[in-house]
From TrEMBL:
Gene3D superfamilies found in the cross-reference section: Sodium:dicarboxylate symporter (1.10.3860.10)
Record key words, sorted: Cell membrane, Membrane, Transmembrane, Transmembrane helix, Transport
PANTHER family with a match to the protein in the record: PROTON/GLUTAMATE-ASPARTATE SYMPORTER, PROTON_GLUTAMATE-ASPARTATE SYMPORTER
Ranges for region Disordered: 427-446
Protein name: Dicarboxylate/amino acid:cation symporter
Domain of life (superkingdom): Bacteria
Topology relative to the membrane: Multi-pass membrane protein
Species the sequence originates in: Jiella sonneratiae
Pfam families in alphabetical order: SDF
Chief localization: membrane
Biased composition (Basic and acidic residues): 427-437
Signal peptide from the UniProt entry: none
Amino acid sequence: MSLTMKILIGMLAGVVVGAAINTADVAFLNDYVVGGFFAMIGTMFVNALKLLVVPLVFFSLICGVAGIGDIRLLGRVGGKSFGLYIFTTAVAIAIAILIAQIVGPGQGFEMQGVEAGSVTAKEAPSVWEVFANIVPTNPIQAFAAGEMLQIIFYTVLLGVAVVMLGDQSAPFIRACEYMNEVMMKIVSIVMAAAPYGVFCLIAKTFAEQGIDLFVPVMAYVGTLVGALFLHLFVTLMILLKLLSGLNPFTFMRKMRPAQIFAFSTASSNATIPVTLQCVTERIGVKNSVASFTIPFGATINMDGTAIMQGVATVFLANVYGIELGISGYLTVIAMAVLASIGTAGVPGVGLVMLTMVLNQVGLPIEGIALILGVDRLMDMIRTAVNITGDAVVSTIVAKMEGEFDQAVFDDPNAGIETDHDLDIDHAAEERLAGEARRHPRPQPAT
């Protein structure tokens, strides 16, 4: 049984059990089962998510920056792709927050025992303070205190220095690649426990709140799906048309195999081989560009994850009756953009990053319980949005650099064999994805 199905079963079982306990209203169940066992398991699972944040960001970012290979590329292909990735992520979360503000998911809902406005968020700093405080005075203290903005800045700076040292850094890079694999394995271990954590969190929540809790969650799902589709079919396609002049309908048709694969695996990293095939053989991006921009995008381009963080933040702020204000939402945008650089392209990691964003604006981490049950389903759509963003940026950069084959793009049969090549065994997919993730260096232009 797939993890998605297990989480769905855990969520549904939690709803049924929690609603039954809420209806029965037995003191023993409320005190020892809900307030005891369910609370303990749920807290352990949330803590396990939180403990992954700092090491995951550090090793993922080091590997991502080191994977560039040549700092000079940042001046051209690297600089253009990095700028576009950051721009699309910022636009994505801004759209998400705007739509969530208009729809207002979570408004009018009050959690039992938590009156609206009783949970006070810490005062959000000004935008100037946010950017000024990105530079840490003591990186060790930043790591110990979990100051993620400072950790991200220091790690990127360290990664650039590592690349500049060349061959001297090879042992360090291999060690970081190994530790990154270890962190990915820990994420897998934690996510294996997700069905049980989801069951306990959802059961505890519904036991305390009742079945009416499902209504605002559906509003959250609808808002999130709407924001994801708007970014996928409107924002990214307008950007593609304006900066490359290519036909968005042809582009989407040729990207369909990679999007289907991404939706089924919910992993940007596992989709790298298929995305590369579609971008080079079906769309016409030269391998000299695609071999760098696609793995690079799988590391730092997380538009879908950023959209989830924006919608979830507005949803939870409404649920808890907390007014974040303009400065608070600007902080969320800055955090989501920078956090996306350190978000690994594997299922479930976006949820880890959400805890960081919530901490930054002072929203209760426990609120994740409200959206955790549906997050895996949303992750599948988010991954399709992520890899489409990678392909859009790769195509734009290739067009700008003259590394694009228009004849391939215009040929309706170009790369058609790619559809059949997707029917490869799962072990081969994992090997290809692992190699691309560990060695995402671009090939020299010919």
